[in-house]
Amino acid sequence: MALIREFIEDYRGKISHFQHLAEVCAYQCESALKRQGLRVLVTSRAKRLDSLASKVEDRAQEKNYQSIEEIYDDIVDLAGVRIALFFPQDQREVDQFIRSNFKVDSVKDFPEALGHPGAYPKQFLGYVGRHYRLYLKPDSLPPEERHLAEHVIEVQVGTVLMHAWAEVEHDLVYKSTGAFLSQDEYAILDELNGLMYEGEMALERLQTAAKRRINAEQQPFSNHYELSSYLNDQKRRALPGPECRFSVGRTDVLFQFLKTIGLNSVPALRPILQACSFSPEEEPLAQQIVDHLLVGDADLYREWDQARITVGAFDPFGTLYETVSCFSEDGGLGAFMRSWIAVEQVLGETLYKVLKGEPSDLVLDACAAENLRRAKQLRNQILFSCEPPSPEELERGEEFLRGFMDFLRQELAEPSLRRHQVR
Q1: Where are the domains of the chain?
Q2: Does 1.10.3720.10 match the CATH number of domain 2-115+127-161?
Q3: Over the stretch 191-236, which tens digit does the pLDDT of each residue have?
Q4: How far apart are CA 151 and CA 20, in angstroms?
């Protein structure tokens, strides 16, 4: 008991650290998932002292702890995040997001056998959800907070209904300090669990009905959640397997962009999607849609720029950069973008064939091709990222693009399409 008291006092001094760890993880989850157009509720917490003390006392009988460090190693939910889904079918997209953006240590699916002696023989499965033990990725954190990537976090994913039922059951059964509940109490909890399953079935039907309406709709999407629902449905049809690493990407800015240029509907998007690839190796679907539109009309760069600024001005998860024009003269953004657009206007679709290594009339040596790919990465970061490239990167990229344009002008004047030697 003395060791447990010592551990609890040590944790009391560190609880703010674990709270911050959970908040950072929750922020990364909520910002990305909502920007992708998934309806979720995300909460976070550090383990409460009373709950932790009870858990450690129970486990100490089996674990026979010898030090505080052993207890910390054994308790993995000191920092916890809960992702509650509006619609059960979105579990696949959330799973894909988690596996792509965190270092996942283990995954545990529920229900599990409770194993309580004398417990009521359940008619329903109980809690259904998926729990992850994971770590933040160091490159997702500012330098001063990269130590957070050393600590495990438990992330629980389930529907809003199942999480609500689990809270009731957990407090009554697991946290009960007295004897087991009566058979009547177990029976009522089981009945409530059945209602949750019925509720989840209703949510699935509601999501299916909404998709059916959206797919048949001739009118514009009402919001980026509807746009996301449509794009995710197309992705699921193209990639029906349970595991998929292909992302739809941000739909909030895409919705604003399509709305501005009058392409914010299923009929308008269908021909564009036919030109997109659903391969996991490809860029997110939203980005492919934007690329397809921009390469055909350079004037749309300004419309995209305005869309991202409009969304960034009110986005609670946005950064200061997302309210700055891609064509700002600060840091070399404008000069680089003008050079990139000039190259894109000259080459059109040929540019993207070269970048993908597909056969084309333009032949580049390996060094030039790599520099062109780096320039495309800078362009993507400017248009789609939360932070801009460094001024030094933009200066090098713009210098290459100017030299590349000189080569293209020469080729247009003497169309021999010689191998490009610009470094």
Answers
A1: 2-115+127-161, 223-311, 324-423
A2: no
A3: 888 888 888 888 888 888 887 887 777 789 999 999 999 999 899 8
A4: 12
